[in-house]
Amino acid sequence: MKFRKANKEDVPDIVRLIANDPLGKQREDYREPLPEKYYQAFEHIAQDPNQELVVVEDESLGLIGTLQLSFIQYLTYQGGVRAQIEAVRIREDQRGKGMGEQLFQWAIQRARAKGAHLLQLTTDKQRPDALKFYEKLGFTASHEGMKLHFKQ
Fold it and tell me: pTM, whole model, 2 decimals?
């Protein structure tokens, strides 16, 4: 497996992965051709040095996973940096083979290498299997997350 920063050509495959679950189908607009808003978002991410959109490739299988790491500088923790992990997906036919764990181990090492003092994530309460997976990796549910959605 190879981990690398995503490029523009990866965007359709990444959006397909993100849209390929019950919650993603409700939120995303995956179709061909892919709406321009996804390419615009990719350009913003690619230009921001605190954002890393990563893909996982297998030589014979192609793109099999993705995640986004954000590095957030703040004043608490003595001016610390925290890493936020989002949009973790493994292609459906590759789940249960240990690839998600390898992807997370890579992300943990990357966060450490960038000087983060913690790696955080949120998961939807409608994904109990994901919660169990994250706990198995050592993540703890230490805070209660809240969101305020704005109408578009």
Answer: 0.92
